[in-house]
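[Q] Does anyone have a clean structure-token version of this?
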Amino acid sequence: MLLSALLGTLGSVSLMAQSSTNVYSLNVVGYINVSVGAGYNIVSCPLIASPDNTLNTLLPNSTGQYKNWKVYFFSGGTYSQIESGTKSGWADGGTNTINPGQAVFVYNPGATTNVTFVGSVPSGTITNTLVPGFNLVGSVLPASGDLVTNSLTMLTNAVKGDRVYVNDPVAGYSAPGGIYTATKSGFTPSNPTVPNVGEGFFYENNNGGTALNWVESFSVSNP
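[A] Here you go.
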């Protein structure tokens, strides 16, 4: 599915370098709305935010908007950091990042809430390294749908035995199509589908201790 159908575009911004020669590049700038249901959700941010992709920037909580929410950061096969929302910020400072390609578990103790991420779309050829074992990841691009045949995401080099786990806030991984297993000719029961922009998933790399590179590419022609 094309980016233009999914990204609320604020505009295409031409950036001029400070040099004797004017060098222009084109960035796609926009926003995405991510629905965070009650309970546990896997959330990713496929945009480069300003000034950074810290929790404080993406989910500012100075007024307690996210009080009692929890954000679980996953690294090295374990939850390495848990941020808890208070009435005036994040308990551990909110300096952990949610960069494009990374995903986190978000616990929402209340009703479904829409959060908005604003930033520029990553461009160029970007590699997300999936280490052996479990990885909590998302597309580096604001694209949705079939991860394998989508010309932007192109998750085509899965090794037999690898698995993709898509979480539902209510049904967990038992939701229809929640678990996909790679065979020698593709995935079963079907290609992994992440239907919403900003949704992440667990990728289980069972390739005998070898990392897997998930390569995605997107570019905008210069004016």
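[Q] Thanks! Anything notable?
[A] Helices lie at 55-58.
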